[in-house]
Amino acid sequence: MAILGKLVKAGLDITAKLQSSDENPQIEQENQLRELLTQAKDTAFGKYYGFQEMLKSDDLINAFRKEVPIFNYDQMHAQWWSRQERLEDITWPGKPDFFARSSGTTGKSSKRIPITNDFLASMKSVGTSMINSLHDFDFPETLFESEVLMLSSSARLEKNKHGFEEGEISGINVSNFPDWYEIFYRPGKEIAAISDWDKRVDAIAEQAPEWNIGAIAGIPSWVLLMLQRIIQKHNLKHIHEIWPNFQVYASGGVAFETYREDFEAICGKPITILDTYLASEGFISYTGTANTMAMKLALHHGYFFEFIPFDKRGVDETGELLDDPEVLGIGEVEVGQEYVLLLSSCAGAWRYVIGDVIRFESKDPPQIKITGRTKFFLNVVGSQLSEEKMDKAILKLAESHQATINEYMVAAIKNESGDYIHQWVLVSDLSPEGLAEELDQLLKDANKNYSVARSKALKDIQVTVISKDQYTDFLGTTNKKGGQTKTPKVMKEEKMKSLLEFISQP
């Protein structure tokens, strides 16, 4: 494997020298849109919205915006995607080979996102670009001699009544790995196909001593549990006792910062953290520059992006899109500004609202951070709490107690008097005494709107603390353990009450 490491590292060095970074992002994106419209012009969607005529326009992007409306999932599914199981050429040529199930963090039932062969190829292309970017990190050759552990959802896909295979996107990706991936991919397709999360992690822990893991990818909460299970099973002080070459962790799905301290605690030496934005709708961005968690947008991999300002130009007080929001292109965005992301892709998504809010960290190159979900904007009584503001308050609370709080949930609920309060549930081993007052003050200090709400309509804040085991047991009751499951940080009142009822049981 040593010679392989040298060859791979040399290959990355050569690729980095050959790649050009002089392309204009605005031109790149217009070219992507033109290619997407050309490929889809003969589909039912393309004919309905006049892609053929649109392609003749001198201002392609404005013509596209004028003719094609903005779609959320419910609209896209009802009007177009629901027909793709029976008919061909609906929103993309042919039929999708797979459907990715994604309840995400806010939906009541699973979304079903079409996955085409072109789309799978685009995701692999973004992954290749991410690997090529490792040249800039100057990792040692031992990284390229080792194996990659991807903690995905189950790779055992299910057939629906129309014969299409369904699963979470990470499971679909793993199931489509070519056989030669088995040389370096762990835990391997056999273990990855185990549907039961606990049994899959037990199998990983059993095999762990036989592997030489250099990189791990997956959602932080579940990767952390897996690593803790391995450490416990083999009576280790830290994970580097069994995997000395573990150097890179590719995070994704949720903000990493609330997990950083716990990851440092289970490592024997520093590791490099990369962030990824890999959703059912696409591999949107990845960390491609050393010493930052900002992510480079995948501008030339079959995606066309648009950006709606996450302020009064684009959304109302609850974070919902306006009927006619301002929409910007890649050349019009501003560093430091938050935007709701729109995506058109080779999966047949068109001007599709993914539901994420991003912020530009730089424009040259275009790099972003995810600051939250549009549905994680808690503003029932004017508190205007974004996910990022809540994360910062939780981190400060944890720091003041020299503890960790990985996950949390919050909801605006009515108390017995009919007044709104914020009910928080923190996943930690802290004593709950005094936490409500501390968290309340941190939020007041950080957010003027929250402070005003607390003096008027928001009457109280309550904090309940639960253990990690209680949290994962609750997810087990909703069949949401492992895989791509993300913490629903902002809950509806009904969901919060069901959580409180669950944890109150003896």
UniProtKB/TrEMBL annotation:
Domain named GH3 middle: residues: 299-373
UniProt xrefs under Pfam families: GH3, GH3_C, GH3_M
InterPro entries: GH3, GH3_C, GH3_M
Annotated GH3 C-terminal domain residues: 390-494
One term under GO cellular component: cytoplasm
GO-annotated molecular function: acid-amino acid ligase activity
PANTHER family listed in its UniProt record: GH3 DOMAIN-CONTAINING PROTEIN
Protein name: GH3 auxin-responsive promoter
